[in-house]
Specification:
Helix content is 48%, strand content 23%. With 543 residues, the protein is of the alpha+beta class. It has 4 domains: 2-172, Beta-Lactamase (2-Layer Sandwich), CATH 3.30.450.40; 204-310, Beta-Lactamase, CATH 3.30.450.20; 329-432, Beta-Lactamase; 444-538, Helix Hairpins, CATH 1.10.287.
Length: 543
């Protein structure tokens, strides 16, 4: 009992020494070798090793071993270490007694027996359930690991796991600091290397900023200082986003990230806000700074394009308005370059000609829209100056040919577009006359019908008047002729003339009767090309 208590006191002392060693050590490799060596000596173990594992790849790396101070980063195949795989699977310590005959070691028992290994222990180096590595122990003599030894090793493994995690975090921090320090030094060396270009940068009209891998400004030329309303001293060390205050902070960082991967970025618009409150649109280009002074340094050129972008927006707005205006026109608008290639074809032109704009623009020659030879005639008129002035053609009635081959009457007004004195294009405005012609035809027909109606009315009125006016004297003539016939004997010479007068008067009475019945204007051929009223057709047949 006393001996066991004494041994536990010894175990505690060793653990305290190991913990103190973990806290004081500065050389990681030496630390882990000392730990494995001390455990091997204390427990009379042939070999103690610290193994870092990569379960996904099935590999392990021995970073320290009790029997070899120089051993580190030695790769092992986990397929040959079933006890390690079992620890990874369960997350619990694995104790193997009589290893050559143990079922777990079936696949490697020959190797284990050949090395004289009798007992094995594998303990997880776990922190918060995460296995950081394995403490692997092998013993040839001395019997199996007893409960006290397993308890001691479990405690030692836990302390080692914490130390291992802290060491890795410390190395990561040191590595990051060293990397940042190296990058900063490299950037400063790169800037020093660029000193010979300082005069060139100072006289550039564009702003030039040199930034390090963290996007902090190393140098800013005078144009850049004026652009961003800062001095060189104020800019140095500041993050580029702090100086530009972009509306989209990620955009500039994306540019720098692309540059850090070896790409070049040109003419990227950044909407910036200077510290004095000015709103700018900057056209930014960026590239890596080439040379031997380190990586991660980039050159940014910045150009104020605020006015240009405003003008471009206004131009785009005007262009959009003109396009909508052209497409909203009820008249067809067709433009062609001086080679005859159609460059503009609005919706009204589509409706008249039956083509879609995408099937015409750049694909159809303007001569295909006109009857043969008409396009040349129109160009001669445009250039003559006699039909509306130089380069202009006043309203002219022509025909254009639709997609189906139909000849469509249109009213054309055209002009030549000049750049200076050079002819650049032609444009024509086409008004579809089909509806107008149809309306004119209907109006002409209506006028003809109205004229015919008026003529009929005049004829009827005239005929009625004539019949009325002729009836009275004709009645008198017929009456007197009748009296004379009664008083004159048929044998007298005057009887025959009187009879003729009476008969012709009766005939005239029939004619007057027909005239009185005229209801429409009907004619018939007379002498030569002249015509006279056809009383039989013009008179009503109603009694």
């Amino acid at each position: 009992m006393f001996k066991e208590a004494q041994q536990r006191q010894r175990d505690l002392q060793v653990l305290l020494e190991l913990t103190a060693r973990y806290a004081e050590a500065s050389d990681v490799n030496e630390l882990f070798h000392d730990v494995t060596r001390r455990l091997a000596e204390e427990l009379n173990i042939d070999r103690v090793a610290l193994v870092v594992v990569d379960g996904e790849r099935g590999e392990g790396t021995i970073i320290a071993a009790s029997d070899d101070a120089g051993l580190k980063d030695h790769k092992i195949d986990l397929a040959r270490y079933p006890e390690v795989r079992e620890v990874l699977r369960t997350g619990k310590p694995v104790i193997v007694e009589d290893a050559p005959s143990h079922p777990m070691m079936e696949d490697v028992k020959a190797t284990v027996a050949a090395r004289g290994i009798r007992n094995l222990a594998a303990l997880p180096l776990a922190v918060r359930g995460q296995v950081q590595g394995i403490l692997l122990l092998r013993r040839s003599d001395g019997g199996p690991f007893n409960p006290r030894e397993v308890e001691f090793l479990t405690t030692a493994a836990h302390a080692t796991a914490i130390a291992f995690r802290n060491v890795r975090q410390l190395e990561r921090i040191r590595g990051q600091r060293e990397k940042e320090k190296s990058a900063r030094i490299a950037a400063e060396e790169r800037v020093a290397e660029m000193k010979r270009y300082a005069a060139y940068f100072d006289h550039l009209s564009d702003g030039v900023a040199i930034v390090d891998a963290r996007a902090c400004v190393l140098s800013l030329n005078p144009a850049g200082q004026a652009l961003l309303d800062v001095s060189d001293a104020e800019a140095e060390g500041k993050h580029i986003n702090t100086l530009t205050n972009p509306n989209d902070e990620a955009l500039l960082l994306d540019v720098l990230f692309a540059v850090s991967r070896g790409h070049t970025r040109n003419d990227i618009d950044i909407h910036a806000n200077t510290n004095s409150g000015r709103k700018l649109t900057l056209s930014v280009s960026a590239a890596q700074l080439k040379g031997d002074a380190g990586d991660g340094v980039a050159i940014l050129t910045m150009r104020d394009v605020t006015l240009q972008r405003q003008m471009a927006d206004e131009l785009r707005s005007t262009t959009d308005f003109l396009e909508r205006l052209i497409d909203s026109s009820v008249d067809a608008i067709i433009a062609a370059d001086m080679k005859g290639n159609i460059i503009l074809f609005n919706k009204a032109a589509e409706a008249i000609c039956g083509y879609r704009a995408e099937d015409v623009i750049g694909k159809l020659h303007v001569t295909q829209l006109y009857p043969d030879g008409l396009s040349r005639v129109l160009m001669k008129k445009l250039r003559s100056g006699e039909f509306g002035g130089p380069g202009r053609l006043s309203s002219s009635r022509v025909e254009i040919i639709s997609r189906t081959g139909e000849r469509i009457p249109v009213n054309l007004a055209a002009s030549i577009i000049y750049e200076g004195t050079r002819e650049n294009a032609t444009v024509g405005l086409f008004t579809d006359l089909r509806d107008r012609i149809s309306l004119e035809r209907k109006l002409t027909d209506a006028e003809a019908r109205l004229l015919e109606s008026e003529k009929n009315a005049v004829i009827v009125a005239l005929a009625g008047t004539a019949a009325h006016e002729l009836n009275q004297p004709l009645t008198s003539v017929m009456g007197y002729a009748e009296l004379l016939k009664r008083k004159i004997k048929e044998t007298e010479p005057t009887f025959r003339p009187v009879d003729i007068i009476h008969r012709e008067a009766e005939r005239m009475a029939e004619i007057v009767k027909k005239i009185g019945k005229i209801t429409r204007y009907e004619t018939k051929a007379y002498v030569g090309s002249s015509k006279i009223v056809d009383l039989d057709k013009a008179a009503s047949h109603e009694d």
